[in-house]
Write a structure and sequence with these properties.
The complex is a heterodimer of chains A (260) and B (556).
Chain A lengths: L2 H10 L12 E6 L2 E6 L4 H8 L18 E6 L6 E4 L9 E5 L19 H7 L11 H5 L6 H9 L3 H7 L8 H5 L6 H16 L4 H11 L4 H8 L3 H9 L21
Parallel strand pairs in A: 1-5
Antiparallel strand pairs in A: 1-2, 3-4, 3-5
Chain B lengths: L4 H23 L8 H8 L10 E3 L9 E3 H7 L17 E8 L3 H12 L4 E4 L8 H4 L4 E2 L9 H11 L6 H20 L14 E2 L9 E2 L5 H15 L4 E4 L4 E7 L4 E7 L6 E11 L23 H8 L4 E2 L5 E9 L11 H4 L4 E2 L13 H14 L4 E2 L5 E5 L2 H7 L3 H5 L1 H9 L9 E9 L3 E3 L11 E3 L4 E2 L11 H22 L6 E2 L1 H12 L18 H6 L11
Parallel strand pairs in B: 3-4, 3-11, 4-8, 11-19, 18-20
Antiparallel strand pairs in B: 1-2, 5-7, 6-7, 9-10, 9-21, 10-11, 12-18, 13-17, 14-16, 15-16, 16-17
Helix pairs in contact in B: 2-11, 4-8, 4-15, 6-7, 7-15
The chains are: A alpha+beta (260), B alpha+beta (556).
Chain lengths: 260, 556
Amino acid sequence: MSESSSAKEAEGTAVETAPKVVEKLIPIYVMGRRYEVPEGFTIMKAMEYTGYKFIRGAGCRGGVCGACPTVYRKAGDYKIYTGLACQTVVEPDMYLTQIPFYPANRAQYKLEELEPAPEEIFKLYPEIFRCVACNSCTKVCPMKIPVMDAISYLKQGNIPKAAELAYDCIQCGLCTSRCLGELPQYHIFQLTKRIYGAKIAPSSDHLREAAEAIKSGKYEEALKELMNTDDEEMRKLYREREMEPWETGEDWRPKETKYL
Amino acid sequence: MPYPEELKRYIKKVEETRPQRIEKRKRGEEFPFMSAEQREEMLKYHPDYREEGRREIKAGASKGYAIAHEFADLLEARSRVDPDQVDLSQVDFETDVLIIGGGGAGTAAALLAQEQGAKVILATKLRHGDANTMMAEGGVQAASKLEKDSPYYHYLDVMGGGHFKNDPELVHTLVTEAPDLLRWLESLGVMFSKSAGGRLETMHGGGTSRKRMHYAADITGAEIMRALRDEARNRSPDIKVLEFAPAVELILNENGHCAGALLYNLETEEYFIVKAKATVLATGGSGRLHVQGFPTTNHYGATADGIVLGYRAGVKLKFLHTIQYHPTCVIFPEQIEGLLITERFRGAGADVLNVDGEKFVNEREPRDVESGAFIKECLVKEKGVPTPTGKLGVWVDSPMIDILQGEGTVRKDFVGKWKVYDRQGIDISKEPMLVYPGLHYQNGGLENNSACETSVPGLFIAGEVTGGVHGENRLMGNSLLDVHVFGRIAGKNAAIYAKEKAKEGKLTLEHVKAYHKELEKAGIVTDRVAPMLLPDYTNPEVRKRQLTAHYVGTLR
């Protein structure tokens, strides 16, 4: 790469959260103490900007791990707001704190011994019937999961529907922190999803067949041959390999069948 | 924040060219793939090929090997502890198998080790599961549809992606274990995307000759990680998890075997000694080193700790000179900068476009070539889309997916991303995404064989910390595969080793002292310590005021 383009590259990219010229600062209150932070930062970046170094309360920084649930209020507003610190943008006069850990009851079980029946879930989590349908869980969910509806479906015995609604639950625990009935919703969902995935969803028999075919040694000779192919020949094989077209469906078949 | 007016003007250009591009898609017309020579040429724009970005390391088993300065800085650094201060006769935890790392590889290893009857301790720096595995979106490659695919083609694709430099034995294991891995994950209750008949959905990824990417919507890694973590919790107390307890050194014994590790309680700042008959190092990657100043898609703890630990214990490095830059990381809005946009968007029909709304590269080139093409388009051809934050990017035209596959497809198949953008006030089924390459995966790492053994008896390694299986460039869908296939093998073999081969002996940190001496001999005078454990994003203005002369603890 030429020198000039390298220099441009250095400008064109920047380390995440690298400080830069800040156009506008806004006040936020971290656990009650006032700081000024750049507008447009996420809560996580804003707290780091003020000098906090996270041990707990930071994980993937991409909104999927559930490590950084945050609770906040706005000045003059009675409502409790929630969000993920790595995803929520700071607003002026936000009063915030993080809840990096919230204790919750988790039942231990052996998946292989469970029947795909809702009674198994009720046995492990009898508190599910303590739900008073207040909907606080749904209101605080940063993933916009209809938490209470999913619990209601479970109570009616509908595991597939509950598993579908709770599919992208990140287990941050905010629902549990607000639950009047003291339910550990996210643990209940994980159990539900695993029962569904292992025992109710149609099983993928082609996986078993493929695993067995490979185990039988069917492909060993072809693979050993490839492993001993010289570099030039490998490049040729690679270049000339048959490509499944982008727009085909499940019915596409290759012309070359020798290595199938 | 929603796209500002200045960007909406550029989005207009994307919308203008869209109908034509849709027609081409429908006709099956592709932007031509590059020839081998054109790909080589394009790689010159890839950051790995910048000589000024790396230097030869001056000490250790791979002395003289040129790697990124950020890695060299960590390897040319001292231990966090004075080895003479550690009383190795006071063992705090004793176990059959110690696993360092709580991501996919470590957790799979824990499960398999426990199944062999081993008592397991899993030590992890953050919470169990807060790992790159959790963030992997795209899917898992496996030749599971044998009427059109086989391990033969998977092998060929892996080698081609890795520039034919990969370790053949490792690749053989990777591709032949793949369908069985998926079967295992399904039996643990992972909800993969599948048809009513049970056939798993598959799609293309960059560099695949067959559609063999299996997925769980666009949160494949999270779906797997949560199921594995849940299963590990079910196996307590056989599997004991220590969170916020990173390892800072491996401990050897007088026979030269690995015999555990020194753990650090991040909160109380105490060090603890774990004695183990076998140890699995599965600490993951290194995006948070921000090599060459690039943003990263990695989780908060991806700081190459395992590289430092293994290297000090004498394990060689392999392919660490190559890093995978994921071509499509969000470059704007800034709040989600570095966020990974899975290749599946491109596999599902989204074009990659420059500032004129025109295609300039096939969207399914191998990742390194694709990244090189983006960098060239932005910096050399000056056809990048300028962001309000002063950066450059290219478009991923996600609205095409709804047009090609029916309204609601983006919302359903990419639910994770859709929600993240929705929070910013952007509907990606209507507006495209602005991306640029970012640090994504550590292609190389410590050397192992297909049994996950290293040159140190009793030390097994698996996952992103290792090097060899991906050669110089990993294909999409082979990381979730790699970490779990080799995690399982490492766990099983570590447990068998603990049962049959482990030889007791006096614990020692002599290797750390020897490493310090070697650094001194090489003329490296430094107060750097490693592993880094966590990156520091404190505002420099604040740092200037952090004037404590001597910390009583050791955290900062």
